[in-house]
Amino acid sequence: MNNSFFSKFTPKETKFFPILTEMADVILVASDLIIECVQNNNHELAIEYYKKIKEQEKKGDKLSAKVFDELNSTFITPFDREDIHHLADKIDDVTDYINSCAKKIVLYNPKQIPAKAVEIAKLIREDAIAIQKAVNELDVLKKNSNKIKEYCLELKVIENKADDVYENFLIDLFENQKDAVEIIKMKEIMSELEKATDAAEHVGKIIKTIIVKYA
């Protein structure tokens, strides 16, 4: 049983940390690709970017599944099993939303990708870097909990910025776009990007929960 008296004297498996780090790396690669994708209003290029992002999404899914398999085969884990599982799931969600955005760009083929999409895509990249830094410190949680808290706060700040960008986008969209079909296309594409920042903030919340329990 985790966190029992006995477990305190039993070596804990550290193999989860490299897997979580790889998952964070996947977000960074996918975020770079989605930035390039939304900067190029070209359907053929969008298809190529989607293929590359899909590769990262599949890689993230495999890593998430690996975490689940390791949890089932590991006796003593560094943190609660549920916390590790939730953390891996939510990190994977960030990549999933990036992939969903790229997919909708390809499927909907909007006349114009909103300029605000670039802003949120760049915020997602900032999320990826903050998640990388936070995850890289988890194996020395007790020593660097304050630093990890700063990264979690950064994720919250980024999410607030993304909310503002998204809200301003919606105001402008409904005021100036007259084509109802294009409104739907652009709104759904932007919504997936905004959801990615929400998921990234949730990663920070899970990490803060871990800090409260173990730091």
Short description:
The chain has helices at 16-39, 43-73, 81-108, 116-136, 141-176, 180-214. The protein has 215 residues and is mainly α.
Describe this structure in words.
This protein has 215 residues and is an all-alpha fold. Helix 1 (16-39) packs parallel to helix 3 (81-108). It has helices at residues 16-39, 43-73, 81-108, 116-136, 141-176, 180-214. The longest helix is centred in the C-terminal third of the chain and has 36 residues, at 141-176. It is elongated, with a radius of gyration of 19 Å. The chain has a single domain, classed as Phosphate transport system protein phou homolog 2, domain 2 (Methane Monooxygenase Hydroxylase, Chain G, domain 1, Up-down Bundle). It is 81% helix and 0% strand. The chain starts with 15 loop residues before the first helix and ends with a helix. Pfam families: PhoU_div. Belongs to the UPF0111 family. It comes from Paludibacter propionicigenes (strain DSM 17365 / JCM 13257 / WB4). This is Putative phosphate transport regulator.
Keywords for this structure?
215 residues, mainly alpha, Methane Monooxygenase Hydroxylase, Chain G, domain 1, Put_Phosphate_transp_reg, Putative phosphate transport regulator, PhoU-like_sf, UPF0111_domain
The CATH topology comes to: Methane Monooxygenase Hydroxylase, Chain G, domain 1
Terminal Cα span: 19 Å
Sketch the topology as an H/E string, one letter per element.
HHHHHH
Number of domains: 1
The CATH class is Mainly Alpha
Rg, Å, rounded: 19 Å
Global mean pLDDT = 91
CATH architecture annotation:
Up-down Bundle
